[in-house]
Write a structure and sequence with these properties.
- The chain has two domains: 125 residues, 3-Layer(aba) Sandwich (Rossmann fold), CATH 3.40.50.720; 176 residues, Dihydrodipicolinate Reductase, domain 2 (2-Layer Sandwich), CATH 3.30.360.10.
- It contains eleven helices and twelve strands.
- It has a six-stranded parallel sheet, with helices on both faces. A six-stranded mixed sheet has the order 8-9-10-7-11-12, covered by helices on one side.
- Helix 4 links the parallel strand 5 and strand 6.
- The longest helix is centred in the middle third of the chain and has 17 residues.
Length: 321
């Protein structure tokens, strides 16, 4: 049984990590979050130590290490901009690290962390759960076995409505989250690069507080993409059904169906890591470089080959005067 520490226990994604630790028959020893709304721990590890102060969490892990009960893994579910520091913390405690996406905000952070991996002899793993989705695996196999010279036309649409709270939270701060493309798009970009190859050309058409749209030329695909957290960008027929989220990938005019099969992907990710096959930090490099470039590219407007939803009227920031 492996012993885990968890940083970011009150976050949205933390319960999936708790469940994965439990379902793989391991133990959460200690958890940290500056917010104390973490009653969810009772459903998984009621005996876990919990801390709201980083220094006390650090001291506790050091204390149990000196008693010969060192943690084996640190799982990180903290805000994006803290991942780099929290990964370093885990490595310094001689633990392997499992980190949510985006693993870091900048590609050079990966270089530095790989150096610390070498120094400590520990490993950093990224949660890239779409690579473990059966439909995605089958799609990659189909593309790999298809004509080597074929360039596919792909449309990616991901709309996931968020309320005004989003802009008050760290997620609405580009410096902390990396913005829309990083916060909600990075795992789709990773999936597309994994299947169709690296980005050769990237154009950004629209990039505002609530949406982003652009165009990629990958090694084996031309991709028009649109991301939005604004409910108003959803089609009226989806709103009529009560939907607040829409996810679609069209490949050569055909819908790629992968709406189901998500519930156990974090557990599968943990199994993958514990079996010695996890996605190491370098695996995330293409996606991290992609979102970094999007974040630092000036949008060109509605020119060239853009996603149809990029034409939707732009919205004011909810807190603008």
């Amino acid at each position: 049984m492996k012993k885990f520490g968890l940083i970011g226990a009150a976050g949205y994604v933390a319960p999936r990590h708790m469940k994965a630790i439990r379902d793989t028959n391991n133990n959460l020893v200690a958890a940290l979050d500056k917010f104390d709304s973490v009653g969810i721990i009772d459903s998984h590890f009621p005996n876990a130590a919990f801390f709201t102060e980083f220094e006390r969490f650090d001291r506790y892990l050091e204390k149990i290490k000196r008693k010969g009960n060192k943690i084996d893994y640190v799982s990180i579910c903290s805000p994006n901009y803290l991942h780099d520091a929290h990964i370093r913390f885990g490595l310094r405690h001689q633990a392997d690290v499992i980190c949510e996406k985006p693993i870091v905000l900048n590609p050079w952070n990966i270089d530095a962390l790989e150096e610390i991996e070498k120094e400590t002899g520990r490993n950093v793993y990224n949660i890239l759960q779409l690579r473990l989705h059966q439909s995605v695996i089958e799609l990659k196999k189909k593309i790999d076995e298809g004509p080597a010279d074929k360039i596919y036309d792909v449309d990616l649409t991901y709309q996931t409505s968020r309320g005004n709270w989003y802009y008050t939270s760290w997620k609405g701060d580009v410096e902390k989250s990396g913005g829309i493309a990083t916060n909600i798009g990075v795992h789709f970009y990773d999936m597309l690069c994994w299947i169709f190859g690296a980005v050769k050309k990237s154009v950004v058409h629209v990039h505002t507080h609530d949406r982003a749209a652009g165009y990629f030329e990958l090694e084996r695909a031309r991709v028009r993409w649109f991301l939005s957290i604004n409910y108003d960008t959803l089609a009226e027929e989806l709103k009529a059904k009560g939907a607040r989220t829409y996810r679609s990938i069209m490949i050569e005019g055909e819908e790629f169906e992968f709406s189901g099969g998500f519930t156990e992907l974090h557990t599968r990710s943990y199994e993958h890591i514990l079996e010695g096959h996890g996605f190491r930090i370098g695996e995330a490099r293409k996606a991290i470089q992609t979102v970094h470039d999007i974040r630092h590219t000036t949008p060109i407007g509605l020119k060239g080959d853009y996603h149809p939803l990029a034409k939707l009227p732009l919205a004011k920031h909810p807190f603008s005067k």
